[in-house]
Amino acid sequence: MPNATQVDVRTAVVVPSLVSRAIFAVDEIRCGDLEVRLASHAAEIDAAQALRYSIFYEEMKARPSADMARLKRDFDAFDLVCDHLIVCQRDIVIGTYRLIRRAGAELVGQFYAESEFDIEPVRRFPGSVLELGRSCVAPAHRQRATLHLLWRGIAAYVRRHGIGLMFGCASLPGIDPEAHALALSYLHHAHLAPPELRPHARAERRGDMDRMPADAIDRRAAPLTLPPLVRGCLRPGGLIGDGAVIDHQFNTIDVCLLVRTDGVAERYLSFYERGLGGPLANTDGLS
Q: Against a cut of 0.70, is the pTM above it?
C-alpha cells in the first residue's frame, strides 16, 4: 500500500459506502494551503487510516492486531459506515476525524463508545446524534489552524445534518489513573452530565473519577492538564459521563464526552467557522 505521506488522492477511485455521504454547502473549506473535506476516494481513506496507525500505534504505543501491524493501518468495522473528515495539505492527509451517525451505528449494531460505556441516555436523545472519534493530526501540523479547520468541518457537518448532540470517547494518555487524578477529578466535579443525559462506564471496566475532593481542585491548573481537543469540547458547555475506562489496547484512560449543539455550543461552532491562527502543542484527545 502507498505511504500515507506520498499518496496522491487525485488519481484514486471512489469508495462505495453503506451510508450516504454528506455534501457540504461548499465543496471544501480552506485556510491557506490547508483544506478540510469528507473523504470520497479509496486513497483518502487509506491515508487517514495510515495516519491513525502512525499516531495511535507508533507514537502513542497502542497495541495493533496482526493485520493492522502488517498493513500499518488502523481500521475496524466502523470505517465502512462512517464519514471520514480529513484535513489535506496539497492533497496529503495531515488530520482526520471519524463521524458516525445513527444510521451507521445501526449497521454495525452499536456506536463505538458502547464497548466502554452504557450510552442509553444518548440513544434516547430525541434529536440527531453524532459520534466523534479517531481524531489525530500529524506531528508537523499540530498548529491551531489545523484543529480549527477540523472543527469548521464538523460545524458544517452538524448544520448539514441537524445534529443536536455530539459525543465520543475522550482519551488521556497512559493507563495510570493516579497520574491523571487532577484532570479526572476536575472533569467529574465541574462537568458531570445531568442524569437524563449521563452515560456510565460499564461496571466491569469502570474506574472512579472523583479521586480528589471538589474543594482541593485547582480550577485554573486542572484544565491545562487536559488534551487541547478535550479542552476545546468543554468550552461550549461540554459534559462528561460517569466513570473512566482504562483502554489497554490504546494505552489510554477514556471518559465519555458530550456536547449539545444548541445555545452556547452553537455560538462556539460559529466561532470555528471564522477564526484561525496561533500555535497548538498537541491535538490528540478523541479516540
A: yes
